[in-house]
Backbone:
């Protein structure tokens, strides 16, 4: 069983930065693919970024050039560096781990971008 715990959310002004972290406990064996998603109030959960088991990164157009996803396999942590934040980035951010048909989600961390 895998548990994912996000941290690092908070309130930030437009143009500011935040760094989210996701700590994984337990293991499904091997190095899984991991991703960040977000869900704004009244909207569906949307994909933000992925980092594969071999380190390939992919980003949603809305965050490309502003967000950076990274991972530390030894520490089993996933990060999301968010720069140049905009009010429309306000959402609950979720960490996802998936591999071989197994999918795990964290409980989410709130990010609010407001002046």
Residues:
């Amino acid at each position: 069983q895998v548990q994912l715990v996000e941290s690092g959310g908070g309130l930030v002004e437009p143009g500011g930065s935040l760094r989210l972290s996701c700590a994984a406990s337990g293991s499904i064996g091997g190095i899984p693919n991991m991703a960040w998603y977000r869900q704004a109030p009244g909207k569906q959960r949307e994909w933000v970024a992925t980092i594969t088991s071999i380190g390939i990164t992919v980003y949603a157009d809305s965050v490309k050039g502003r967000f950076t996803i990274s991972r530390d396999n030894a520490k089993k942590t996933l990060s999301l560096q968010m720069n140049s934040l905009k009010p429309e980035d306000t959402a609950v951010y979720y960490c996802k781990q998936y591999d071989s048909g197994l999918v795990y989600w964290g409980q989410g961390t709130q990010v609010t971008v407001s002046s």
Observations:
- The mean pLDDT is 95.
- The two ends are 40 Å apart (CA to CA).
- DSSP finds no helices and eleven strands in the chain.
